[in-house]
Design brief:
The chain has 144 residues and is an alpha+beta fold. 20% of the residues lie in helices and 34% in strands. The protein has one domain: GTP Cyclohydrolase I, domain 2, CATH 3.30.1130. The chain is built from 3 helices and 6 strands, in the order αββββααββ. The strands form 2 sheets. A 4-stranded antiparallel sheet has the order 2-3-5-6, with helices on one face.
């Protein structure tokens, strides 16, 4: 069994905090990461956020959706509380669905450089149309 060192968690400020502050925009939200102890192995991590909300950039009306994030980590993994706060930060953000899914993908890629990441958003119908968006990024040389 791999030995767990407490120093691995020294940069996880949001998880350790006794008070939770909600960022008011995705740009201000931080994604925190921790060392992947099994970086020699390909395995998939999945996060589901069935209560994702954002605001229409034109009408300001709320949009509701389900965001699913799947990724194969490399050296780093995303810490789930920071991901939750990042996704919650869209609640007051005016953005199209396509933009939201791409922003999430880019932020995850920047934070942990996964071997592969797929973010999909299934948004509830408004005006009679549901929108589904899927973005995939693959690190050069990785084959899923």
């Amino acid at each position: 069994m791999k030995k767990l060192k407490s120093s691995r968690f020294s940069k996880l400020t949001l998880l350790k905090s006794s008070k939770t502050s909600f960022p008011d925009s995705p740009e201000k939200a931080a994604l925190e990461v921790f060392e992947n102890l099994y970086s020699e192995r390909d395995y998939e991590i999945t996060f589901d956020c069935p209560e994702f909300t954002s605001l229409c950039p034109v009408t300001g009306q709320p949009d509701f959706g389900d965001i699913s994030i799947k990724y194969v980590p490399d050296r780093l993994c995303i810490e789930s509380k920071s991901l939750k706060l990042f996704l919650f930060s869209f609640r007051n953000s005016n953005t199209f669905h396509e933009e939201a899914v791409n922003i999430i993908t880019d932020k995850i890629s920047e934070a942990c450089s996964p071997r592969w990441v797929e973010v999909s958003g299934k948004f509830r119908p408004r005006g009679g149309i549901a929108i589904n968006v899927k973005v995939e990024k693959v690190k050069k040389g990785f084959r899923k």
